[in-house]
Design brief:
With about 325 residues, the chain is an alpha+beta fold. It is built from seven helices and five strands, in the order H-H-E-E-H-E-E-E-H-H-H-H. The protein is rod-shaped.
């Protein structure tokens, strides 16, 4: 990883012009910088932001350092001029940048020759460091460097604080969106375990290799006993209701499979009995048949005429 050498020559500002109306004054510069840092792709515009800040403030170096994630060190992600190179880790235990990260406050040095916090051999004379807040820790810093003492005015410091505030809001929103995305994906990638109810647990006896049939009988009895329990329906969850329904269906299937021969015989007996009963009911509804008698004596058709029948010997 490259080390920071404050004495290295600054890059030229040939790519920028003071006549550019977008950066002609502090208000225009603030609008430009704010629009770039508010964008969700703000990391792609950090190089432009550092150049704009350097042109407006006259700084010899500008650096933006951020944490990649919670707990990670603060690392320089973009720099311009006399500033730490990209990828350099900022020490949190020493220096002006470390003080800003530890305290979360603005740190300003107008002349390093009269400030014990800056190394005596440093080529930098003026430094301003502002924190970039996240949730809830300092997530980075914005820093101005100059080889001239008293190089930065209060207006320059205000511009740097504005850029840090906008960047803080963007970083915090980026973190919230990432957290919501992880929470949304968590149930899909790692399904939550289904709750277990004591009413749905099966009590199985120890295995008996010599008597497989009694083992099955005991297990069926345990399942039937747990299925016939009378739970409070108002307190059951959807998983417990599904468990009761599944056990009831299993008991019915086992009963049908076990007693299918008896059920088939019972159905046949019922059909035969029903057929016989049907014949009996139909015979009762028709009534008894009339009895016909055969006689050789003819009875006259006239009711008013009497006929004397011969007596039997």
């Amino acid at each position: 990883m490259a080390a920071w050498n404050p004495a290295r020559p600054a890059r030229t500002k040939s790519s920028m012009s003071a006549a550019d109306p977008a950066v002609g004054n502090l208000s225009n510069a603030a609008r430009v910088i704010g629009s770039l840092l508010e964008n969700e792709n703000y990391r792609d515009h950090l190089a432009v932001v550092t150049e704009q800040i350097a042109l407006i403030t006259g700084a010899d170096g500008v650096a933006i350092a951020l944490r990649e994630n919670t707990g990670a060190p603060v690392t320089c992600v973009e720099s311009w001029g006399m500033a730490p190179e990209k990828g350099v880790t900022v020490s949190e235990s020493a220096g002006l940048c470390g003080e800003c990260i530890r305290t979360g406050t603005l740190v300003r040095c107008d002349d390093s020759l009269h400030d014990s916090r800056v190394a005596a051999m440093s080529a930098l004379r003026s430094v301003v460091v502002v924190p970039v807040w996240g949730d809830p820790l300092v997530q980075g810093i914005l820093t101005l460097f100059s080889a001239t003492p008293y190089a930065f005015s209060d207006a320059h410091v205000a511009l740097l604080k504005f850029a840090a505030d906008v960047l803080s809001a963007t970083v915090a929103e980026e973190k919230r969106v990432g957290d919501r995305s992880r929470e949304t994906l968590r149930p899909t990638l790692v399904p939550a375990p289904l709750p277990q109810s004591t009413a749905t647990r099966r009590v199985q006896p120890p295995p008996q290799a010599a008597q497989p049939r009694p083992h099955a009988e005991a297990r069926s009895t345990a399942v039937t006993a747990s299925s016939t329990a009378s739970p409070d329906l108002r307190t059951l969850t959807e998983y417990e209701v599904a468990g009761y329904a599944a056990r009831a269906v299993a008991v019915v299937k086992r009963g049908l499979k076990r007693y299918k021969d008896e059920i088939r015989l019972g159905v046949i007996v019922l059909l035969v009995a029903g057929t016989i009963a049907g014949f009996i009911v139909a015979a009762d509804q028709r009534g008894p048949r009339p009895v016909q008698t055969h006689s050789t004596t003819s009875v006259p058709s006239d009711p008013g005429r009497s006929v004397d029948l011969p007596e039997k010997p």
